[in-house]
Write a structure and sequence with these properties.
By secondary structure, the chain is mainly α. It contains one helix and no strands. It has one helix at 3-64. The radius of gyration is 28 Å and the shape is rod-shaped.
Length: 66
Amino acid sequence: MNQSQNVSHQAGQAAGQAQEKGSNMMDKASNIAQSAKESCQEAGQQMKAKAQETVDALKSNDGANK
């Protein structure tokens, strides 16, 4: 292999490694985004449940005061 072929080969290897690292970073970012989405959904469900509890308590107290 001459020097030109060697440089070309090394450049190809570097490009492949960079592509693999980029792909891994995208996978990690996707996983983080999915986790954040699930956390937000869970927090939303908890807030909804608490709001419903508050409404039910207010209705119960309103009925008791009549």
